[in-house]
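A favour, since you know our structure tokens better than I do. It will help me judge whether the discrete encoding reads sensibly. The space below this message is yours for that.
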Amino acid sequence: MIELEDVSDLVNPVVIAAFEGWNDAADAASDVIDHLIDVWGARTVGAIDPEDFYDFQMNRPVVSTGLDGHRSLTWPGTQIAIASPPDLDRDVILVRGLEPNMRWRQFCAEILAACDDLGGELVITLGALLSDTPHTRPIPVTGTATEPDLVDRLRLEHSTYEGPTGILGVFQDACTRLDIPAVSYWAAVPHYVAQPPCPKATLALIGQLEELLEVTIPLGDLPDESQAWERGVDELASEEEEIADYVRALEETRDTAELPEASGEAIAREFERYLKRRQAD
């Protein structure tokens, strides 16, 4: 069981979770949590005991030296933090860690029990996968939800995926079994630039959070980093003719497809987010 610090009653808290590993191509999803912890000034209130869930030969502890010269050991694990965003009328519970190596059902049960103790009312999981999408176009984000009213309100879909799954799939299944409303967003990262980071995909996931929570999230340096990332991939593609040809083929396929993000409704939502951000600035 996760021991939580004393926390005053939170206001209608929403849970946002991401885990490094199979579910997190280019670290795009876990980078969202890192960004939110930073811009919302979140503080850690609990952590899962890594001894029960991680194989330390696969996820080794890290030794580091502080500015004071003292050596410290950091164990792999999963932490829970809380934040009170100034522009949001509810608190946020942030879950950030590594996909566990064992006891996945117990892992999910302990995380969700801790979130329940904090009053969590809605769970949002973030993931990223490698896809045949061009880096020069908007990053596609797909969303699913566990309850019909969420599907309708957020214009999402019921998941039809069949096959192997990661901790996010197990986590969302645990939410369903416990009757906890849950939403999952997945960003598609170009597979030919799979190395982290991918700030463009991180921004795409943040955009979905803004729409769901109806809040403007400070972006900091992410837009500049996203543009620099895209320029860097452009340079890489220009140096390799085969890559350049492949990117052009992906662009042609993407531009001729009937894409949700190219619809009038999607463009209107994006413009509305832009106006809100201008007003916030």
Q: What stands out?
A: The mean pLDDT is 90. The first helix runs from residue 28 to 39. The longest strand covers residues 122-131.
